[in-house]
Amino acid sequence: GIVEEIIHKHMGNDGWIPVEEQLPEEEKEVLAQFVVRVVHTNNTVDEEVYIHPLYYKNGAWQSFNGVPNGKVEAWQNLPEPYKPDEN
Length: 87
Description:
By secondary structure, the chain is mainly beta. It has 1 helix and 5 strands; from the N terminus they run H-E-E-E-E-E. It has one helix spanning 2-9, and strands at residues 17-18, 30-39, 45-57, 60-62, 71-77. A 5-stranded antiparallel sheet has the order 1-5-2-3-4, with no helix packed on it. The longest helix has 8 residues, at 2-9. The protein is globular. It starts with a helix and ends in a 10-residue tail after the last strand.
């Protein structure tokens, strides 16, 4: 499928998919990387990169803690949950 092709194409980028290229399914929680830019009074800019689980709904990124204060640049599927060994 198309999503698999895009993921395969970005394997060298640790599986990150740029949002310009593809958005996740609506309401599906994914791992999102977003950047918060803080402009100081002396015009220096600090950029903080955050990685959090978010989901995309109605044209906006959201989380269970509200809307991220930054620009989402890329995302990837969340890993499968850890399953302890049975034995």
